[in-house]
């Protein structure tokens, strides 16, 4: 655990990619194989589920150190992170100097064993572990793993490149082999990275190819006829896989979604075997996408009712072909992949499988005019893909670009603030915003991104000086700071006091030039709903 805690500390405090790459490479060079498998799992989103609730953890920590629960709660609110609070509160004097140190995999696998255990057994393990771990850093990591909230600022790409230094495999090969449905508790390091693992798992998806945002004029990309333009759909990026007469649906986040979209079961009978399609999971009627809010009614549901199937019918908008007849087509030019994709889609001819159209245009100016119609099409903008491009791994510059439309914006005043988490756990960085409704202020959204570190510090200082009321970790503040809130879409909502819900809200700028009385009104917000909502 000590090795892993030191790694987490470097990854959590460094801002340089090369430093993170070096730290991961050094770790993979010396760590035992079972720990390496768990690190790959953790950094690719396969976090162990929480087996002990946070209330019990707080109670046991308070008992161990003899601290009243009310004082523990005050400490928690000050620190802003439960795992860090516990790590700071447990004194070094409680550490057992004769305790046997355990590796990372011991603790994670013990968590899993305790899932069905009684409260006393869980408590004994927690206290024993707190006493065994030598440093606050180790206790912090232990608590994070236990809570199921383990998140570290390192991309899977960096981890894959670090592994490539250790095992002498191409990063794209590693990215593919660690994808899919595998259990870190039973698979060995050698098995995970072997070619046998690919052949044994017929569900295994390919790593997704991701695009960068186009921040220059499209004319700088060259001749328009070298590029394929498509609508950028607002759904769940996914892969539709049929191998060995079995069907699998994977999300970009490597979540297996097959059972959540029973509409796609028909593909098992009508798609050719040995095929992988890349596309977007979108609710649609008569071939036209429905708003993302409709998709949200299906996300997270374990069981889908007949009514939900009718109200939110799902289609798979396919735009690329990655495998055909069990052959990897990713190295084939996009123009050829598109030809084969159109052939497959035309043979299927079902409303559940729709071919994402290629946009016809003669000049960049004509395409820019079409881009302005994106919201009418239910899209976020355009995708530009070089016709000669192969399907790469991860986010790459050069061949795929997303050319999104400008976001919608509205001016609002901050009325509530809460401390953030991680490196922002001591700063008020999570804000609630309101618009005017006559003489009242009506909250309508939250946002916690979009400001610089300097600006976050300024707002934090304002909150501490201008708090009006305290509700647990939340502070009511004087409604004086005005911000421009940007968002991608708007929909009606019964759950929000304002009657609307925003898609991807974030702070686009601090309007120091505006006074609170100049913010937008609830009526103006609802007019935006009429125009841009569906």
From TrEMBL:
Annotated InterPro entries: ATP-dep_DNA_ligase, ATP_dep_DNA_lig_pp_1105_fam, DNA_ligase_ATP-dep_C, DNA_ligase_ATP-dep_cent, DNA_ligase_ATP-dep_CS, DNA_ligase_ATP-dep_N, DNA_ligase_N_sf, NA-bd_OB-fold
EC class (word): ligase
The keyword Cell membrane is assigned to this record: no
Record-annotated ATP-dependent DNA ligase family profile domain positions: 307-437
EC nos: 6.5.1.1
A Pfam family it matches: DNA_ligase_A_N
Top-level taxon of origin: Bacteria
Keywords: ATP-binding, Cell cycle, Cell division, DNA damage, DNA recombination, DNA repair, DNA replication, Ligase, Magnesium, Metal-binding, Nucleotide-binding
Reactions catalysed according to its record: ATP + (deoxyribonucleotide)n-3'-hydroxyl + 5'-phospho-(deoxyribonucleotide)m = (deoxyribonucleotide)n+m + AMP + diphosphate
Example GO molecular function: DNA ligase (ATP) activity
Transmembrane segments: none
Keyword Ribonucleoprotein (UniProt): no
NCBIfam families the UniProt entry points to: DNA_lig_bact (TIGR04120), PRK09247.1 (NF006701)
Protein name from the UniProt record: DNA ligase (ATP)
Species per Swiss-Prot/TrEMBL record: Terrimonas ginsenosidimutans
């Amino acid at each position: 655990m000590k090795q892993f805690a030191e790694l987490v500390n470097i990854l959590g405090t460094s801002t340089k990619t090369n430093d993170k790459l070096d730290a991961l490479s050094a770790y993979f060079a010396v760590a035992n194989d079972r720990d390496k498998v768990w690190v790959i799992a953790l950094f690719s989103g396969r976090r162990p589920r929480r087996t002990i609730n946070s209330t019990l953890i707080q109670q046991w920590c308070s008992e161990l150190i003899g601290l009243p629960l009310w004082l523990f709660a005050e400490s928690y609110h000050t620190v802003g992170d439960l795992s860090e609070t516990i790590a700071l509160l447990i004194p070094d004097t409680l550490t057992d100097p004769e305790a046997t140190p355990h590796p990372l995999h011991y603790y994670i696998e013990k968590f899993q064993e305790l899932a069905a255990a009684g409260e006393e057994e869980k408590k004994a393990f927690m206290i024993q572990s707190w006493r065994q771990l030598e440093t606050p850093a180790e206790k912090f990591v232990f608590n994070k793993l236990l809570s199921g909230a383990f998140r570290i600022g390192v991309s899977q790409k960096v981890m894959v490149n670090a592994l490539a230094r250790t095992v002498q495999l191409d990063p794209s090969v590693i990215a593919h082999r660690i994808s899919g449905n595998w259990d870190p508790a039973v698979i060995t390091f050698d098995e995970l990275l072997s070619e046998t693992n690919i052949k044994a798992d017929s569900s295994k998806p390919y790593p997704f190819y991701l695009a960068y945002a186009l921040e220059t004029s499209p004319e700088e990309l060259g001749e328009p006829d070298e590029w394929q333009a498509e609508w950028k759909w607002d759904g769940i990026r996914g892969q539709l896989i049929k191998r060995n007469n079995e069907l699998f649906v994977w999300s970009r986040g490597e979540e297996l979604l097959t059972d959540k979209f029973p509409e796609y079961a028909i593909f098992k009978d009508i798609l050719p075997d040995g095929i992988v399609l890349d596309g977007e999971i979108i609710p649609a009627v008569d071939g036209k996408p429905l708003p993302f809010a409709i998709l949200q009614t299906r996300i997270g549901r374990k069981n889908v009712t007949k009514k939900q199937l009718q109200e939110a019918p799902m289609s798979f908008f396919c735009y690329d072909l990655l495998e055909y007849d069990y052959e990897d087509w990713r190295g084939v030019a996009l123009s050829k992949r598109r030809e084969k994709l159109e052939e497959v889609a035309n043979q299927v001819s079902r409303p559940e499988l729709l071919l994402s159209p290629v946009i016809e245009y003669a000049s960049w100016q004509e395409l820019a005019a079409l881009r302005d119609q994106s919201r009418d099409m239910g899209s976020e903008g355009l995708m530009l893909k070089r016709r000669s491009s192969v399907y790469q791994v991860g986010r790459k510059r050069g061949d795929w670009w997303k050319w999104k439309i400008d976001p919608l914006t509205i001016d609002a005043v901050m009325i509530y603030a809460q401390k953030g988490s991680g490196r922002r756990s001591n700063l008020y960085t999570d804000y609630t915003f309101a618009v005017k409704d006559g003489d009242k202020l009506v909250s309508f959204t939250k946002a916690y991104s979009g400001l610089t570190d300097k600006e976050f510090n300024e707002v934090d200082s304002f909150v501490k000086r201008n708090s009006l009321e305290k509700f647990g970790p939340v502070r009511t503040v004087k409604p004086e700071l005005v911000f421009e809130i940007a968002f991608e879409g708007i929909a009606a909502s019964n759950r929000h006091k304002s009657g609307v819900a925003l898609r991807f809200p974030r702070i686009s700028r601090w309007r120091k030039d505006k006074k609170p009385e100049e913010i937008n009104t609830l009526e103006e917000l609802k007019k935006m709903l009429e125009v841009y909502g569906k």
